[in-house]
Amino acid sequence: MEIYQGIILGILQGLTEFLPVSSSGHLVLGQIYFDITEYGLVFDASVHMGTLGAVFIVYFKDIREILKSLVYYAGTRDSSGHETNLALAAAIIIGSVPTAIIGLVLKQFEHILFTSSLLVGAMLIVTGGLLWLSRHCYRIKKGGRLTVSKAVMIGISQGFAVIPGISRSGTTIAVGLFTGLDRMTSARFSFLLSIPAILGAQIISLEDMIESQSYIDPATICGTFASFIIGLLALKLLLRLVNIGKFHLFAPYCWLAGILALFSNFI
User: Fold this and answer.
1) In sequence order, what are the residues at sequence separation of 6 or more whose Cβ sits closer than 8 angstroms to the Cβ of residue 172?
2) Which residue in 213, 220, 142, 224 sits closest to 183, CA to CA?
3) Is 77 left (phi over 0), alpha (psi -120 to 50) or beta?
C-alpha cells in the first residue's frame, strides 16, 4: 500500500466512523477500488484505533468518572453518589454482550461480508432508511432513562453493524431514539458502547494478524494519524448535528452511495 492510499483510507475511516454512513462499508469499497489486498487486517485495526482515540478525547470526562465510580465501588461496595455512573457502566456491559455474540457469529462469514460491494450497497440503503425514520423521534427533549432492555436493543443493533454498509453510529443512535431516549443520550451511549466493541474486535483480530505476519508500515502509520485527526473533527460535527436535529440528513448520501455501489457491480 502506498502512503497516499493509506492517508486517503485513513481520512475515509475518520469521516465515516462517526458520520452515520458506515466506515467499514467505505473501507471495503475503497480497498476494492484501490485494488488493495495486502496489510488489510493490520491497517483496518490501526485506523479503528485511531478513531477510538477520538472517542477517548471527546468523552474523556465521562470515561474518567465511570472508572472512578467503578474503582470506588470495588473498594467500598458503596454506591452512594455514584449511582448514575455505575448504571451507565452496567448498561455498557449489558449492551456489549449481544454485540459480542453477534460479532463472533458474523466473523465466520467475514470472507464474504468484506469482499462484496453488492452487499455494501444494499446495506447502505438500509442505513439510509433507518436514518430517515429517526427524524420522527427528534421531538423527544427529555426521553426515558437508559434501561436494561434499551441497552440490549442498542447492543444488538451494534452487533449487526459488523456488516459493511450498516453504520454503527447511525444504527445505534437511531435505535436509541426509537426506544425513547433523547438525542444526546442516544449519541453519548452509542459512542461509549463503541469502546469495548472496537477494543474487543481488535483483540480478536490479533491472532489473524500474527498468522498472516502482517506488520505496521508507513502507510498504516499515516492512515492511523489521519483517522484520528479527521475522526475527532467528524465526531464533534456529528454531535452538533444530532443536537440540532439534523441527523437524518445523511440518509440521501447513504442512498446515493448505496445505489452507486450496486451499479458498480454491473459496469
Assistant:
1) 154, 157, 158, 161, 186, 189, 190, 193, 194
2) 142
3) left
d(CA 142, CA 224) in angstroms, rounded, equals 37
- Average predicted confidence (pLDDT) for the chain: 86
The neighbour count for residue 201, using CB atoms within 10 Å, is: 17
Whole-number Å distance between alpha carbons of 159 and 201: 11
What whole-number distance in Å separates Cα of residue 18 and Cα of residue 12?
11
Which one, of 1, 56, 54, 61, lies nearest residue 23 by Cα?
54
* CB neighbour class for 2 (10 Å; exposed up to 12, middle 13-18, buried from 19): exposed
Torsion angle defined by CA atoms of residues 239, 241, 244 and 249, in that order, rounded to the nearest 10 degrees: -140
pLDDT in tens, 234-250: 999 999 999 888 889 99
pLDDT in tens, 105-128: 988 887 777 777 888 889 999 999
Q: How many CB atoms lie within 10 A of CB 72?
A: 17
Angstrom distance (rounded) from CA 38 to CA 215: 10
- Cα separation, 121 vs 136, in Å, equals 25
Q: Residue 96 belongs to what H/E stretch?
A: helix 83-107
Cα radius of gyration (the chain)? 18
In eight-state DSSP terms, residue 244 is T
Cα–Cα distance for residue pair 130/110, rounded to 1 Å? 24
**3-class SS of residue 116:** coil
